[in-house]
Amino acid sequence: MLRGIHVPLVTPFDTSGEVALDAIEKLAHQVLDQGAKGLVALGTTGEVATLDPGERARVIEVCARVCAERGALLTVGVTGNDTRSTARALRELPSGVGAALVIVPYFLRPGERGVVAHFEALAEETPVPLVIYHIPYRTGQSVSAATLRRLGEHPRIAGVKYAAGGIDQDAVSLLGDLPDGFEVLGGDDAFISPLLALGAAGGILASAHLETRRFADLVAAWHDGDAVRARRLGHRLARLSAALFAEPNPTVIKGVLHAQGLIPTPDVRLPLVPAGAESVSQARLVAVHPGE
Ligand SMILES: O=C(O)C1=N[C@H](C(=O)O)C[C@H](O)C1
């Protein structure tokens, strides 16, 4: 279900600051045309924290329509750090949503037993399969391979978006012994190639707004065992990701998409501030001349 590249779409804004739904629709078609297997709505990249409930609903609606037309998976980010309200948000997901990306409870640091209790409770209530979003440098909560493996045994938990900030011992251990039906998706753009080499099923990667086809080829190359091709692509795309993450995500990506005429403005909502012109032009340069 999760194999391949899933693009966590940016939320473009028009010149009056409203969500540009038509631009989302175009971007969605474009990345699916270029080989993405699915979309992620309301991720960090989509600036979910700054969207009001009506905006969130409209973003999901557009993405669900495109995914239904294209036979693609729509995953929706469900953000919350208490179990009751997260369960409610899951129950209220509209039809057309295929999976929910649920972050490890952040800030509270409930410990690994709390993390297990949280996801096991959500798994009992969710109408769609869950993907755990493990990103300790944002949540403040570590989760070991053993805990992820235990959660992965639950039939309603389909995978983990793994974003530990690098390839750590837990990534190696988890990918060496995955529960049946549980998959790992890379969530640190710069480390996607080595994670795929270890056996990841794909990735949820903001960088794949650009060069979507090459990211899809990277996944296919590792899955086909073509290490020579995979390494070459991996190094090229890592350079692109480094340039796109030179400032807080998704500011540089929005700058590049705007410069390419794909979104009406590069605007982000506070507390994010737009990327500097230098970062945007450097990322555009790397996209064209990756230094092969
Ligand atoms: O929104 C997402 O999903 C992603 N967010 C990460 C982040 O901003 O840290 C980056 C990743 O590419 C996908």
UniProtKB/TrEMBL annotation:
<keyword id="KW-0963">Cytoplasm</keyword>
<comment type="subunit">
    <text>Homotetramer; dimer of dimers.</text>
</comment>
<comment type="function">
    <text>Catalyzes the condensation of (S)-aspartate-beta-semialdehyde [(S)-ASA] and pyruvate to 4-hydroxy-tetrahydrodipicolinate (HTPA).</text>
</comment>
<feature type="binding site">
    <location>
        <position position="45"/>
    </location>
    <ligand>
        <name>pyruvate</name>
    </ligand>
</feature>
<dbReference type="Pfam" id="PF00701">
    <property type="entry name" value="DHDPS"/>
</dbReference>
<keyword id="KW-0028">Amino-acid biosynthesis</keyword>
<feature type="site" description="Part of a proton relay during catalysis">
    <location>
        <position position="44"/>
    </location>
</feature>
<comment type="similarity">
    <text>Belongs to the DapA family.</text>
</comment>
<keyword id="KW-0704">Schiff base</keyword>
<keyword id="KW-0457">Lysine biosynthesis</keyword>
<dbReference type="InterPro" id="IPR002220">
    <property type="entry name" value="DapA-like"/>
</dbReference>
<dbReference type="InterPro" id="IPR013785">
    <property type="entry name" value="Aldolase_TIM"/>
</dbReference>
<keyword id="KW-0220">Diaminopimelate biosynthesis</keyword>
<dbReference type="InterPro" id="IPR020625">
    <property type="entry name" value="Schiff_base-form_aldolases_AS"/>
</dbReference>
<feature type="binding site">
    <location>
        <position position="204"/>
    </location>
    <ligand>
        <name>pyruvate</name>
    </ligand>
</feature>
<feature type="active site" description="Proton donor/acceptor">
    <location>
        <position position="133"/>
    </location>
</feature>
<keyword id="KW-0456">Lyase</keyword>
<dbReference type="InterPro" id="IPR005263">
    <property type="entry name" value="DapA"/>
</dbReference>
<comment type="pathway">
    <text>Amino-acid biosynthesis; L-lysine biosynthesis via DAP pathway; (S)-tetrahydrodipicolinate from L-aspartate: step 3/4.</text>
</comment>
<feature type="active site" description="Schiff-base intermediate with substrate">
    <location>
        <position position="161"/>
    </location>
</feature>
<protein>
    <recommendedName>
        <fullName>4-hydroxy-tetrahydrodipicolinate synthase</fullName>
        <ecNumber>4.3.3.7</ecNumber>
    </recommendedName>
</protein>
